[in-house]
Design goal:
With about 90 residues, this protein is mostly helical. The protein is built from three helices and two strands; from the N terminus they run αβαβα. It is flat, with a radius of gyration of 12 Å.
Length: about 90
């Protein structure tokens, strides 16, 4: 359950940090394979954001640690080396 909380925390940190003029595409990174429950949940989050915002916002999912492991991504967000937006 804690990994889902981390996914949501990172995703919400990206959304909170964006202004209305910037808010189009966000990155959601996790260290799980896409076929796992966590990977499927991240894909569900991405589809729900697109659906509930009528396509105004998009979430790009980066599974399997593509942007780094959880610690690296969390530190990168803090330092600004891993941007929330492409």
């Amino acid at each position: 359950m804690i990994p889902i909380l981390r996914i949501l925390t990172v995703a919400s940190a990206c959304v909170i940090g964006a202004t209305a003029a910037q808010a189009d595409t966000f990155r959601l990174s996790h260290s799980y394979e896409p076929s796992t429950a966590h990977g499927k949940r991240a894909d569900w989050i991405a589809s729900e954001v697109a659906k509930r915002t009528e396509g105004r916002h998009e979430v790009q999912v980066f599974p399997s640690g593509q942007l780094g492991n959880e610690r690296d991504v969390e530190e990168g967000l803090t330092l600004g080396t891993v941007p929330c937006r492409p």
